[in-house]
Design goal:
Largest sheet: 5 strands, parallel
Distance between the termini: 30 Å
Oligomer: single chain
CATH class: Alpha Beta
CATH architecture: 3-Layer(aba) Sandwich
Number of helices: 5
Radius of gyration: 13 Å
Strand content: 15-25%
Strand order of the largest sheet: 2-1-3-4-5
C-alpha cells in the first residue's frame, strides 16, 4: 500500500491556489488548500501535512506571522515550509528563512523548479 504525502497550499489568490493544487496533484500528492494564514494554521494542526507551501504576502495574517506561529507550535514546528513569494530581494528572502521557512521559491517559478523543491524538501532527492 502506497501512502500519499500531503501538501498544504496557503495562498490568497484563488487562481494560484487552483493552479498549484492541480499541478501538485498531478505529481501524486494529496492537497489541502487554505486561503489565508489563519486558516492555514488551523488546517496544519488538524490535518498534519507533510509540507506547507506558504504565500508570504496575504491579507489578514501574512506568511511571516503564520510561519512564526507554526514554528512556535510543537505540533507543526518540524514540518518543512516552502515560502512562495513575489519578493526577490536577498533581504526579503533572508527574512523568509529567519521567520522559519525551510526554503523558498520566487514567483513566477517553473513547475519543474516547484517539483524539484518539493521532492528535495520531502527527502526524495537532493537539491543540486
Amino acid at each position: 500500500m502506497t501512502i500519499t504525502k500531503s501538501i498544504l497550499i496557503v495562498e490568497d489568490h484563488p487562481d494560484m491556489r487552483e493552479l498549484l493544487g492541480k499541478q501538485i496533484e498531478m505529481m501524486g500528492f494529496k492537497i489541502i488548500v487554505s486561503k489565508d494564514g489563519k486558516e492555514g494554521l488551523e488546517k496544519a494542526v488538524a490535518q498534519k501535512p507533510d509540507l506547507i507551501m506558504m504565500d508570504m504576502m496575504m491579507p489578514e495574517m501574512d506568511g511571516w506571522e503564520a510561519v512564526r506561529a507554526l514554528r512556535a507550535d510543537p505540533r507543526t514546528k518540524a514540518v518543512p515550509i516552502l515560502a512562495t513569494t513575489a519578493l526577490y530581494r536577498s533581504a526579503d528572502l533572508k527574512a523568509c528563512i529567519e521567520a522559519g521557512c525551510t526554503s523558498y521559491l520566487v514567483k513566477p517559478f517553473t513547475l519543474s523548479d516547484l517539483e524539484t523543491k518539493i521532492h528535495h524538501l520531502l527527502g526524495r532527492y537532493p537539491l543540486e
